Every structure is written in structure tokens, then in C-alpha cells.
Amino acid sequence: MDDLEVSPGRYITPHQTRIHKQPFWSNTMKLSLGPLLYFWAQDQIEDFYQEMIKTPVDIIYLGETVCSKRRSLGFEQWLELARSIQQSGKEVVLSTLSLIEAESELKTLKRYCDNGEFRVEANDIAAVQLLSENKIPFSCGPTINIYNAQTLAILYKQGLYRWVMPVELSQQTLNDILTELETLGIKDKVETEIFSYGHMPLALSARCFTARAHNLPKDQCDLKCIDYPDGLQVKSQEDQSLFTLNGIQTLSGLHYDLYNELEAMQNMGIDIIRISPRSQQTNKIIKAYHAKVFSNNTDAYTISEHCNGYWYGEPGMIQSQ
User: Fold this and answer.
1) Residue 286: left (phi > 0), alpha (psi -120 to 50), or beta?
2) Which residues, 6+ apart, have CB-to-CB distance to 80 below 8 Å?
3) Domains of the chain as residue ranges with CATH
4) How confident is the model at residue 25 (pLDDT cuts 50, 70, 90)?
5) Does residue 17 or residue 130 have the better pLDDT?
6) CA-to-CA dists, residue 315 to 167, 225, 310, angstroms
7) Helix, strand, coil: what percent of the chain each, to 5?
8) What are the residues whose beta carbons fall under 8 Å from the beta carbon of 294, sequence distance 6 or more?
9) Which residue pairs from 173-178 have beta carbons closer than 8 angstroms and sit at least 24 positions apart in sequence?
């Protein structure tokens, strides 16, 4: 990047992905595995990522992004896991907390930002500031409110090399942003990643909804999140899935699924499609997406009980097509 100076050998310099017009089933798009949003035991986390090493994902995001009380793995343990995954040839990115509420969390955030080994995904604007001040390249996760190309242009000058589109934006909005990025001359210098599968992260709160569901105060939550490896489902009186409670985070009730939109994303020049981890069948989802992208194979996947409304500019819980 012309506007970014990085000490040689210390931080990984972001590469610039050039977009070419190729058949859909070419290998221009990458698959990523987003950060784990739920609270799992240490053994489950370690076993999960050992399995993920064997999958065809190109990028794996690691770290606690929701609640600092979840300490199955500490900072050094996340680093150790990152090193082991990197040895498999995959790109590893450390994801930061999405809501900073205490001085202790800010100190941990600084350790992530100054880790000296791995790229960092900022999920809070405080992380953006820390990384920018220290001239460290960074990506922005879906919880950073990036709604137009002008915002991306400002962040690019500060060190942004990749962004994940906020889940509530539509295909049309994304297309407008990419067109404007091309006009600004930076479309090929900023990677675009789309949250394509999983419960959508919708909101964060100072309150812990999982603790509240058990009539417990947040400070004495007994870490109840660990009882819900895919979040606590909330349904309407008509038994319709509305939300998924995940501690202080509210997720969509249904899985967002853009499997049928992969060709459209390829044609738009999207660089990366993100799959969010779940306790079961993550491997199956990854293989299905990979087969679709790299061989145009659509036989191994069936969509049910999913949604994609936001992509079409409709209410998010709708399955439009």
C-alpha cells in the first residue's frame, strides 16, 4: 500500500488481489472460516480446528469476538493454535472483541493488535485506531459499520486491506459500493469478503441475554453460554425462529445462506466467502461450498430452514429464492 509503512519482516504485508473475468467454477474466490461465535470447552475448540485444518478453507479467523468472560483459550493459547494452523498452509487472522467495555478488555485488544505474527481483523473501531496508529495492516469484520465506498477509501488510507460487508446490506448496495471503489481506483486494492453462511451477527448489548434467560445477573452468569453450543433459540408463539441468543450478542434465528448466490458473487468480483462455524456439519457446509465454487457441483447441498432476505433488500428472515 502506498499510504502504509510497515517494518520489514515484522508484519505480513497485505497482498492485492486482482479481479479477472473467468468462468464461475474457476478458483478466483477463496473460502474463509469466520471466528467462533459461541462458547465451547477447550477440548471441543481444539478438536474442531484440527478437523478444519483438513478442510479446503483458505483462511481461518481465530479469537474471542463476543464476551471476554469466555476464557476456554487465553491469548497465548490462541497464538499457539494459530501457529499450528498456519503450518498447514492456511492463512490465519486474529479476530478482536466486538464490544469493548472494560480496561482489561482494552489491554487484551492491544495484545492482539501488537501480536507481531498474524494479521488482525478489527471488530470494534478501537481496534481500527490502534492498528492504524501503529501502521499495522488490518481487515474489518462485519460489525464495523461500513456502508459506502467513501468509508472504505478512508480506512484504506489507514491500512485496511480487506473488509467483510455488514450482513444487512443488499447485493445492490454492494454492487454500488464496488462500482464506486472502481471509480476511486482502489477496487483491486481492497479485498471484499461476504458473510455467506451461518447465524448472522445482528446486535451487541451490555446485557447478557443468556444469563437473563436463566434469571442470573451478568456478573454471575455461571457461563451459561457453554450449555448452548449453537446459541439459545428464540421462537415466536407461532413457533417461528426469530433470534439466536449468544450471551451479549443477538444473532438471526435462521442460518443465512448465500449458496445459490455464489455465481452472482463471482461475477461481481467478490474475493472471499465466509462460513461461520457451527457445532455440527461445518465440514459438510465447507465441502459443499467448495464443490460449488471450484467445480460447479450442486448435487451435494440442499437448502432448508435458511434465509437470504437481506441479500435481496428484503427483511432478513425471508428466504427469497
Assistant:
1) alpha
2) none
3) 30-208+254-302 (3.20.20.220)
4) very low
5) 130
6) 12, 28, 6
7) 35, 20, 45
8) 25, 27, 56
9) 173/147, 173/313, 174/268, 175/268, 177/148, 177/149, 177/152, 178/149, 178/268, 178/269
Per-residue cell: 181: 471503489
The pLDDT tens digits for 47-97 are: 999 999 999 999 999 999 999 999 999 999 999 999 999 999 999 999 999
Are 165 and 194 contacting, i.e. CB atoms less than 8 angstroms apart? yes
* Among 237, 248, 233, 4, CA closest to 102: 248
CB contact at 8 A, 65 and 50 = no
**Are the C-beta atoms of residues 193 and 275 closer than 8 Å to each other?**
no
What count of residues does the chain have? 321
Percent of the chain with pLDDT over 70: 89
Spatial separation of the C-alpha atoms in residues 95 and 121, rounded to whole Å:
5
Does residue 283 carry a pLDDT above 60? yes
> Whole-angstrom Cα distance, residue 126 to residue 141?
13
- Tell me how far apart the 2 most distant CA atoms of the chain are, in Å: 59
Q: 70, 15, 13: which is closest to 39 by C-alpha? A: 70
**Separation in Å, CA 219 to CA 22, 91, 224:** 53, 36, 12
Nearest-angstrom CA–CA distance, 3 and 50:
38
DSSP 102-143: SHHHHHHHHHHHT-SSSEEEE-SHHHHHHHHHTT--EEE-TT
Q: Over the stretch 130-169, which tens digit does the pLDDT of each residue have? A: 999 999 999 999 999 999 999 999 999 999 999 999 999 9
For residue 191, the cross-strand partners are: 162
CB contact set of 231 (below 8 Å; sequence gap of 6+): 37, 38, 199, 244, 245, 246, 251
Q: Can you say whether residue 89 is alpha, beta or left, with left for phi > 0 and alpha for psi between -120 and 50 degrees? A: left
